[in-house]
Specification:
By secondary structure, this protein is an alpha/beta fold. The chain has a single domain, classed as 4-Layer Sandwich (Metallo-beta-lactamase, Chain A), CATH 3.60.15.10. Helix content is 20%, strand content 30%. The strands form three sheets. It has a seven-stranded mixed β-sheet with strand order 6-5-4-3-2-1-16, covered by helices on one side. Strands 7-8-11-12-13-14-15 form a seven-stranded mixed β-sheet.
Amino acid sequence: MVSITWLGHASFKIEHDGFVVLVDPWMGNPKYPENMKEFEKIDAILVTHGHFDHVGDTAELAKKYRSKVVCIFEISQFLSGKGVPEGQLVGMNKGGTVEIGNGFSVTMVNAIHSSGLPGENGIVAGGEAAGFVIHTPDGHHIYHGGDTDVFYDMKLISDLHQPDIALLPIGGHFTMDPREAAYALNNLLHTVKKVIPMHYGTFPILAGTPEELKASLSRDVEVVTMSPGETINA
């Protein structure tokens, strides 16, 4: 059975049979649970795009735990410059699928957002923003949307990869808000049965709420409202 732990903002731990995957690990986020800053192991880290609140602590964690890091190619080059060994980096691009171990594979999919990384003279290009569909050993397909607006080709993600669980941003301002996330679930992500809202409440400007999402849904999708540090079994 796969477990999903929300670590605040867009950070998640996904685990099955002792194999641990982190997505966008940012321990500096004000909602991050203090008792979850140490891990026994981290097998793989997925990075959706090149903003500080998503690349987060990836370099430090990857070096400490010798984790595989899956990300768009340009971010892999950035992390190499931060001292992450080349053998741990899996630079890829949208449409690609890679095996990450223990029956897990991940597919990189589109997202509508910007991406930038800190350079010597300011922000430099960080490739494009992406999302992931995480294919688990027990048959779940978990769609982490990354930071994104709603876009019509979410239907392609649903048609091709059959996600049954979605981790979707709802905060607004930098991403889609609850009404837009509900549109995606009502009209595009037709295979999703369960949604976990994310990227809301970290700062006041991320004002969308799960209650607003529920109010805008017109089909039967379970909205799982989690507290940072909480774990559910899928």
